Amino acid sequence: MSFVDFVKTKLFWKHLGYILLVAFGILLIVFFLLKLYTRHGQEYVMPMIEGHSIDEVQQMDSVSNFEIVVIDSIYSPGEKAGIIIKQDPPAGAKVKSGRKVYVTVTSSSGESIPMPSCTDQSVRSAVEQLVNAGLRVGKFIFKVGEFNNIVVGQRYHGSPINQGETIRRGEEVDLIVEMTQDSYTTQMPNIIGLTEPEAEKLIWQASLNVGRKNFEGKKDVAHSRVVSYSPNSSSLTKGTTITINFVNDGKSDYNSKANSFKPAKPAVETQTTVEPDVNIEDPNNASPDEGLQ
């Protein structure tokens, strides 16, 4: 019997039907197994867990489908230990059950770290070094000299501290800055809507000091945001102390308070500066190790 004659028989079509049914069945099984493996259709919306403690989060039904993994801890003065200040994935993201959620939390005390070198660089770079190391700016001390806006010394508790010396994370370091006679003023950055660490970093990078901080609503690193500050001037003398007012962004009046504050615009003809509590040292009385190194 030729192949053409065999194709015309019922036996051929019967076996072809069996083959197609088996293939279709295999495809259904594969798709079903893939659905189980990828948990298709079992996505959950990631809740906001920033601002809550690890203990609180572990009791939440909304995170029972996820695994919380602490990847870093940051010492924040005045903050309770174990508060989540950063999460990944962020709130609102759609994730599958069993997904690991990576969080950064506050620690109870700062661990010992080597002091970075902030000298022989601009104020902006020096502040970046300190913040990245988990340290804070205590105050700026200015010297008049030939270099402008260059950090020439660093102090801890009033005494010079050298690169590599042990210091605890979260401590304050004073920066000695050299500036020329005609460079006393700086521009106030717009910090409205920023968190406490974000606002402090911009203020320090502008050679300004952080003063009193007032908090309305629950204070936490992730949700306390700037709604106003004083003095409200676009141009300030370096070393001016800035008072910052925070409102928790979960409060109903947060947006109205943040939007009602209008940062001062630069004057066109005249420019008013605010007299600060500025520290200016006589370079002739400075310690030898606090000059340019």
How are the secondary structure elements laid out?
Elements: H1 3-7, H2 10-38, E1 43-45, H3 54-58, E2 67-75, E3 84-88, E4 94-96, E5 100-107, E6 112-114, E7 121-122, H4 123-132, E8 136-144, E9 150-156, E10 159-160, E11 166-168, E12 172-179, E13 185-187, H5 196-205, E14 209-216, E15 224-230, E16 235-237, E17 241-248, H6 254-260, E18 279-281
Parallel strand pairs: 2-5, 8-12, 8-18, 14-17
Antiparallel strand pairs: 1-4, 3-5, 6-11, 7-9, 9-10, 9-12, 13-16, 15-17
Overall pLDDT confidence = 83
**Number of structural domains:** 2
Number of helices: 6
Specify the structural class: alpha/beta
Main sheet attributes: strand count, strand direction, barrel closure: 6 strands, mixed
Q: Uncertain regions: pLDDT < 50 for 5+ in a row? A: 269-277, 283-293
What is the highest CATH level, the class of the largest domain? Answer: Alpha Beta
Radius of gyration from the CA trace? 30 Å
Question: What is the ordering of alpha helices and beta strands?
Answer: HHEHEEEEEEHEEEEEEHEEEEHE
Number of strands: 18
Could you give the distance between the termini?
A: 101 Å
Query: Shape from CA axes?
Result: elongated
* Percentage beta strand: 25-35%
Helix content: 10-25%
CATH architecture of the largest domain: 2-Layer Sandwich
CATH domain topology of the largest domain: Trypsin Inhibitor V, Chain A
